[in-house]
Amino acid sequence: LVSNSTWIGEDKPCITYGLRGVIHCELEISSNHPDLHSGVEGGAVVEPMFDMVRLLASLTDGQRTVQIPGFYDHVRPQTEEEKELYKLLSNVTRRPAASLSSRWREPSLTLHTIEVSGPKNATVIPGLVKSQVSVRIVPDQDLDTITKALVAHLESSFEILQSPNNLRVTVEHVADWWLGNLDDHWFQSLESAVQD
Q: Which member of 55, 134, 139, 151 has the greatest number of CB atoms within 10 A?
């Protein structure tokens, strides 16, 4: 039996019956200038780093709620049966049920990296800034719809900045969510085999 997903403990087997989907994208903001010296050009140019910070900040609000239009519209509501399962898992893992639910069944957005051109010292205004962003989707969010909404949100938020810099959004990888049925014959057989 092989599983490359999260187990809930070292001594407690875990059967994965669902995975969140993912959308990975790269954002790139560039100016028409090379890397510049802040002591000479600071305040005289629109810096790509400021644009990137503002763009990334547009993705969530102060309560970490994702601001992509329609993002939560089709998230499948949690059933009472699921809530009971999370309470049970909470007792086993000694972690709050809400924490487990947010990790396994709720959509999310993550900012992974910010990279700059140039020598990366405190006197350089980078002419190019890149960031890696991912979105995790869940039942019943549509992969294509959320991908398009993410790109549209980034492009419209950048447009609002009225920056002379250039934005490029590249969707690098997508994978849809998957959810099995615990009552399915195969899951029942697997559960029986693990218990034996």
A: 55
